[in-house]
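Changelog-adjacent note: as of this version, every example in the card shows the full chain rather than a window. The one below runs 138 residues end to end.
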Amino acid sequence: MKSVILDPCMNRQLIRQRRRSGLDYNDEVWAGGCVISPEADNDHQFIGTELASVFREAIGGPAVAKVRARVNVSDREVNREKNYRLRDETSELVGKSVPETSVYLESAVLPLSFRLITDTPRPEIELIRTVGTQKWLI
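Full-length structure tokens:
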């Protein structure tokens, strides 16, 4: 069921209550409006967990850096401040990849390159270690 709160005072009050109670973990801003989303489904949790596992292996484990499975991703190059997770409140464009191209997106912070591959029933994410020969498909 979808709900829309048009009263700005009620909206701010709801956001404050959700922050205080810790229920705002998945709350996001889309086109400037607050969106309260349910937990990720099994497919999305699988993708996030697999990415976190590859990242952890690529950086050399927990002694080198912390890896978090849940990240804030926006679909916008411009006006990213209009689409973000409320709890994070920051966004930085690191690159763009689309299934229609075979262009690799090289990470500036991880020793990995990424690209989307068109596949059925869903696109896959290919990750390649920039040093060495390891390769993963998620």
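Structural remarks: Residues 78 and 93 are 9 Å apart (CA to CA).
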